[in-house]
Amino acid sequence: MDANRLRFVELFDDFSDRELELLAGIMNAQRFPAGRVVFSKGQRATACYVVISGGVDVIVEGKDAQMSVVATLTPGQMFGEIALVDGGLRSATCVAADKGAELAVLGRAEFEQIFNAGSPFAFKVMDLIAARVVDRVRDAAKELLGVFLQERKSQAQSADR
Amino acid sequence: MAEINRSRLRPYPIFRGCGPDDLDRLLSCVSERKLTSAGQLLFQEKVPSDSAFLVESGLLVAELPLDDSAPVEMARMGPGSVVGELCLITPGLRSLRVRCLQPSSLLRLDREKFMAFREAGDRAAYTVIRNICLTMCDRLRNTNEFIERELNHERPLRASETRIEKQSLGERARQYLSDLFGRKK
Fold first, then answer.
1. CA distances from B22 to A4, B7, B17, B90 (A)
2. pTM (predicted TM-score)
3. Cβ partners under 8 Å of residue B149, min gap 6
4. Of A30, A65, A70, which Cα lies nearest the Cα of A46?
5. Which residues in chain B have Cβ-Cβ distances shorter than 8 Å to A144?
6. Tell me, what's the pLDDT at B25?
7. Contact B173 A133 (CB under 8 A)
8. With a cut of 50, which residues of chain B have pLDDT below it?
């Protein structure tokens, strides 16, 4: 794909022109019309994605098995990066939003290949993904802690009454 | 004090895939830390993380101190556990305090020295980073499913999940938090 399409992506701000070219060399651009499934929950993951234009709806099963959109990813946002690390199963379904989506796709196999070859560029991508994983761990911990502390507070208030 | 050599690093999953030369290089980041009496603090919460620890023997507990009551135990970590490894990826403050329940012998992995390997693009350092990510991704999958299911969307529990149904939401959140910090199941 064209490296210029990656230039505006904030995630890659630290990448030099050469590194962006390398990245573009291993990423593919894919267009998804509105409503087209990018991947489904439970599918084995083979790639991570960056939204170049348009949007992507993240859909999960809600109450009474209703499917609901929990987030819409916009240009510059990365998703599916956990899969790039562990190749596990998708935890949500992602669908191209109203205006469709153009995505830059980084395949796990391609990433593994450059990582195992000891490419400094692959290490830089790993830095980026690792930092995002840590952010997500810290966010999840914060959310769980909030629920736990809120319940303790409610229990303490009930005991006081 | 026994020599610190590569065989002492091998048992820990964060070094999976590292060859003998890789481990030998990383030894320069490693030093010993002994906690000799029960109750001794390894680190306090809300202080900058400057190292990860590999538990060789003994028993540690990670606790959440509370203003108005006794600290809450979040996880226990014995031989083979890795403590505080996220700091090898990004700096941050310790989220829990950790102290020993039994005299413990640890290996300390210095963040600053490890960062020098990362900055030099050393393969061993990135193998460690990837291994930490693999562990964290695995834990995140379980945690995110719980958050999605019970905090955001209130989907009713499936029959297979009724084992935990009797516990309150807060208690289940605590257990998932504990798993996120590496409680052994």
1. 37, 12, 9, 21
2. 0.83
3. B155, B157
4. A30
5. 143, 147, 173-174, 176-177, 180
6. 96
7. no
8. 154-165, 184-185
